[in-house]
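Retro notes (design track)

What went well: tokenization of the new backbones is finally stable.
What didn't: we kept losing track of which sequence belonged to which structure.
Fix going forward: every design gets posted as structure first, then sequence, in one message. First example under the new rule, 120 residues:
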């Protein structure tokens, strides 16, 4: 079992519960961690034996382009998309960070982390 990570994927998206957020948007960071069997790729040097992280990025980018009020919903859609496209994922962690959330004070980011573990 191996862990494949894509960390620090940055997007400007129109997510937020406040009306202004759906107009001007905000900056978001997405972090993905996936556990899968990569033995075939390790022994054959063949991309088909692993999870193609370029495809993972494209799936995340597509979900980030769909406006949502809540980052929980965004993370759920990302998790769902990855599980559907990569059934070999055994464990998955999706973190969505909203940079500088609109609160009455200074906050670097607010985040949600969703997990998935395939029932074996």
């Amino acid at each position: 079992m191996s862990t494949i990570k894509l960390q620090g994927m940055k997007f400007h998206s129109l997510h937020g519960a406040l009306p202004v957020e759906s107009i001007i948007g905000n900056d978001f960071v997405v972090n993905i961690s996936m556990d899968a069997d990569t033995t075939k790729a390790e022994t054959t040097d063949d991309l088909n034996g692993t999870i193609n992280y370029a495809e993972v990025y494209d799936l995340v980018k597509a979900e980030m382009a769909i406006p949502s009020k809540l980052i929980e919903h965004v993370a759920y859609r990302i998790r769902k998309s990855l599980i559907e496209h990569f059934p070999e994922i055994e464990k998955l962690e999706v973190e969505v960070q909203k940079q500088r959330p609109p609160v009455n004070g200074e906050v670097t980011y607010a985040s949600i982390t969703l997990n998935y573990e395939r029932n074996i």
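Added context from the reviewer: Helices lie at 21-24, 39-44, 53-64, 71-85.
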